[in-house]
Specification:
Length: 592
C-alpha cells in the first residue's frame, strides 16, 4: 500500500505558477540559477524540476556539444536517470545492443591480441536484469554510451519541462550575493545582457569554472602524474573509419581497444559500433602542433595499416589529474561536477560523481525554497560530497598510475620466441585491469557515514573499489530489491520511492502496517516534510535492511532505520535530524 503526504510539493507548484521566468528589463526573481548545461547541470535542473522547483539553465554554448567525452554512464547515474524516467530511452543510445562491450589489449588493431576483458553487451545485461533475484543490487547496469549522445537526448528532454528555462548561448559574466539572494549578469552576443535574481546559484561550469574562480575557491591535489602513458598532457581525437568494423575488427569487436607496442600507446573507443571512434594518445614530442598529417599518421600506426580515416575534433586534456575544491559552497553559491572536482578519466568516475553531486544538492535546495528545511541542510552538501570526491579522485588516480606503469618489451610485436614470451608475460598484467571497467564499489558504495543528517546505528561494510556490499546501516545507498515478480520499470523499489522522503514499513504478513510508524507520518505532516509511506511484504528485503522501519532520503540514501514503534517526540526528533533542523529553546529539535 502507498500513502502520500506532499503538502510542501503542492505549495511549490502554486509558487511555480506565480513565478515568471522571462526577464523584463530589470532584476527578475526565479528560484535557482544553474551555470553550465553539461550533464551535471542538466541533471540538477531535471532533479529540481521533479521537486517542482523552477530553474534557469545558462549555457555558454549555442547547442549541445558534439565532441565525445566519457562513455561510461555508471550504475548509480543510471538509477538517477531512472528516477527521472529516462533510463530506458538512454539505453537506446551509443553502442548497438548486441555490440560487444569487451576491452581488448592489442599491439595494433590488426596485430596480436594481448588480453581481453570480457564484458556483457547491453542485450545480455538486460537479460541478466530480467532473470535477477529479488534482492539483486543492479537494476540499472552500466551503460556504454558517449556523453555527447546522452547530452543531446537530455537537452531535448529539458526543452519539454515547464520548470526549466534553458538559455543557450548566454554567458554568465559575474554574480553578486547578499542575504536575500544572488544577482546574476548574463550576456548574449546578439541579444545584449540580462539581470536575474535567484535564491541560489549553482556553478556546473566545468574545469575552468567562472563561478569557482569568482568565489576565490582553490583546487587542491595533483594536476597530473608523469608516466609513459595516461600521465600528463594527452589528446582526445574523434575520427571516422567506416571500413574498420568490416576488416580487422570483425573478429574482435569491443568497446575499447588499448594499443600497446614499443612504438606507440593509445586507446581507441568505439562510439556508435559502426564507424565513429575516439582516440586517446600522447601529443607530438617537443610540443609540436597536432597537425592533421600527424593525426592521420598516428591513427594509421594504431590500426597497423592504411585505411580511409576522417579525423574530426581534437582537444587536449591532462591524465592523472586528482583535484578537489577546498570548499563546495559559499553562502548561496554552490559548485557541482567538474567545477568542484577534476578527474583523470580512468574508471569513468568524473561525470558520474558529478551526477551524484546533483542528486545530493537538488533535494536540499528544494527543501529550502519550499520551506520545510533551513540553510543548515544546505551546509551538509559539502560535508557529504567533498569526502566522496576525494575518495573517487584517488581511485581514478590509482588506476591511471597503474596503466602508465605497464612494462613494454621491445620484442612485443616480434614473431620470435622472445616476442611470444613477452606477450605471454604481459597478458596477465593487462587482464588484471578488469576492476577499471567494473568498479561497482566506487559507483554504488559511496557512503555519508558521520554526516550530521544520518542517524548512524552500526558498522558499515568495508569500502572496496571493485565490489559493492549492500547494507542497511544508514548512510549508504538504500539497498535495492524488486517489489514484485516483474523486472521492468515500476517493479524496482526505486520506482516506488516518493519525490521527498520515503518510509518503508516491512510487514512479512503483507498488507498495511498502520500500527508501525504512525507517529512518523503524523510528524511529517506537522513539519510539512513530504513523506511517502510504502508497506513492504518481503522477509528478504526486511532482512536486507535489518529493521522493520527505514527512512530513505530523496537521493535514495538511507537516513534512519528502527525496529520498534516510536513515540511522537522521537518521531519529530528523527525527522528534524534528517532535515538538519535546529533545536527549540527547550533543547528539542524543530522543523524548518
Amino acid at each position: 500500500m502507498l500513502h502520500d503526504w506532499n503538502a510542501a510539493a503542492a505549495l511549490c507548484i502554486v509558487q511555480r505558477r506565480r513565478d515568471h521566468l522571462e526577464p523584463r528589463g530589470g532584476a527578475v526573481t526565479a528560484r535557482i540559477g544553474i551555470v553550465g548545461a553539461g550533464p551535471v547541470g542538466m541533471a540538477l535542473a531535471l532533479l529540481l524540476d521533479r521537486h517542482g522547483v523552477a530553474t534557469v539553465l545558462f549555457d555558454a554554448d549555442p547547442a549541445a556539444r558534439r565532441c565525445p567525452r566519457g562513455s561510461t554512464q555508471g550504475a548509480r547515474t543510471m538509477e538517477t536517470y531512472r528516477r527521472l524516467g529516462l533510463s530506458s530511452q538512454l539505453r537506446r543510445l551509443g553502442l548497438p545492443p548486441d555490440h560487444a562491450a569487451d576491452v581488448r589489449y592489442v599491439t595494433r588493431l590488426d596485430g596480436h591480441e594481448l588480453a581481453r576483458i570480457a564484458m556483457p553487451c547491453e542485450r545480455d545485461k538486460q537479460r541478466a536484469v530480467a532473470a535477477s533475484g529479488e534482492l539483486d543490487q543492479v537494476p540499472e547496469p552500466v551503460l556504454r554510451a558517449n556523453q555527447m549522445y546522452v547530452e543531446q537526448f537530455v537537452m531535448n528532454h529539458i526543452a519539454t519541462r515547464p520548470n526549466i528555462t534553458y538559455r543557450p548561448d548566454w554567458r554568465v559574466e559575474q554574480f553578486a550575493q547578499d542575504a536575500a539572494g544572488v544577482t546574476v549578469h548574463a550576456s548574449h552576443e546578439h541579444k545584449g545582457s540580462e539581470t536575474w535574481t535567484f535564491d541560489y546559484l549553482v556553478g556546473c561550469d566545468g574545469a575552468r569554472s567562472m563561478v569557482r574562480r569568482q568565489l576565490g575557491i582553490a583546487l587542491g591535489g595533483s594536476d597530473g602524474i608523469t608516466g609513459k602513458y595516461f600521465g600528463g598532457g594527452m589528446l582526445a581525437t574523434q575520427f571516422r573509419a567506416p571500413a574498420l568494423h568490416d576488416t580487422c575488427l570483425r573478429d574482435r569487436p569491443a568497446f575499447q581497444y588499448w594499443i600497446t607496442n614499443p612504438e606507440i600507446r593509445a586507446t581507441i573507443v568505439a562510439l556508435d559500433g559502426r564507424g565513429e571512434f575516439l582516440l586517446f594518445t600522447r601529443p607530438p614530442a617537443d610540443d609540436a602542433p597536432a597537425t592533421q598529417e600527424w593525426l592521420l599518421h598516428t591513427i594509421e600506426r594504431c590500426i597497423g595499416h592504411a585505411t580511409t580515416v576522417e579525423p574530426g575534433t581534437t582537444r587536449p586534456w591532462r591524465a592523472g589529474v586528482a583535484l578537489v575544491a577546498e570548499r563546495f559552497f559559499d553562502h548561496r553559491v554552490f559548485l557541482c561536477g567538474d567545477a568542484a572536482h577534476l578527474f583523470t578519466p580512468t574508471g569513468g568516475f568524473g561525470m558520474n560523481t558529478g551526477i551524484e553531486d546533483a542528486a545530493n544538492l537538488a533535494w536540499k535546495l528544494a527543501a529550502n525554497v519550499q520551506g520545510w528545511a533551513t540553510a543548515d541542510l544546505l551546509a551538509t552538501y559539502e560535508a557529504e560530497r567533498r569526502p566522496i570526491a576525494l575518495r573517487n579522485v584517488a581511485a581514478a588516480r590509482q588506476l591511471s598510475r597503474r596503466v602508465g606503469e605497464v612494462p613494454i618489451s621491445p620484442d612485443l610485436e616480434s614473431e620470435s620466441p622472445a616476442g611470444v614470451a613477452a606477450r605471454q608475460a604481459l597478458a596477465p598484467i593487462l587482464a588484471g585491469f578488469a576492476d577499471e571497467f567494473d568498479s561497482l564499489g566506487v559507483h554504488l558504495g559511496a557512503r555519508y557515514d558521520g554526516s550530521s543528517i544520518i542517524i548512524d546505528d552500526g558498522d558499515p561494510p568495508a569500502d572496496r573499489h571493485d565490489r559493492y556490499e549492500p547494507s542497511g546501516v544508514p548512510g549508504g545507498r538504500a539497498p535495492h530489491f524488486w517489489v514484485n515478480a516483474g523486472r521492468g520499470i515500476g517493479s524496482s523499489i526505486y520506482d516506488r520511492l516518493g519525490i521527498g522522503f520515503t518510509l518503508l514499513r516491512f510487514d512479512p504478513e503483507g498488507g498495511s502496517c498502520p500500527e508501525i510508524g504512525p507517529e512518523l507520518v503524523t510528524a511529517a505532516r506537522a513539519l510539512s516534510v513530504p513523506l511517502t509511506v510504502l508497506d513492504i511484504a518481503s522477509p528478504g528485503a526486511q532482512a536486507l535492511y535489518g529493521a522493520s522501519l527505514a527512512i530513505i532520503r530523496p537521493d535514495a540514501h538511507l537516513a534512519w532505520r528502527g525496529d520498534e514503534p516510536v513515540d511522537a517526540r522521537t518521531a519529530r526528533s528523527i525527522l528534524r535530524r534528517v532535515t538538519a533542523s535546529p533545536a527549540d529553546d527547550n533543547g528539542a529539535e524543530h522543523g524548518g
